[in-house]
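Run log, item B.
One chain of 98 residues. Sequence copied directly from the ordering sheet:
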Amino acid sequence: MIRHTVVFRLRHAPGSDAESSFLTDARVLAGIPGVHRFEQLRQTSPKNDYHFGFSMEFDDADAYRAYDAHPDHRAFVAERWVPEVEDFLEIDYVPLDA
């Protein structure tokens, strides 16, 4: 299993229609085959400058690669993410063997 996460800050004013539109349109990612447990999260800690997070899981590396190459993902990144995200940090996790 791979958990793909990203925390980010938008160029839009907090609470704006543009912010809401971005978050609504990002839900397209949940419908891409292989995506499980898609979540949109709001940052509440003052410990960093990021405002939102996305988290999703994939069964394996092949599913993650298919998601990355999927036309809906590529279009969202090019049309929304690149022009609207001011800063981000992406982290991908695999479970530790206990």
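Observations after the first pass:
- The chain has one domain: 2-93.
- The first helix runs from residue 17 to 25.
Flagged for discussion on Thursday.
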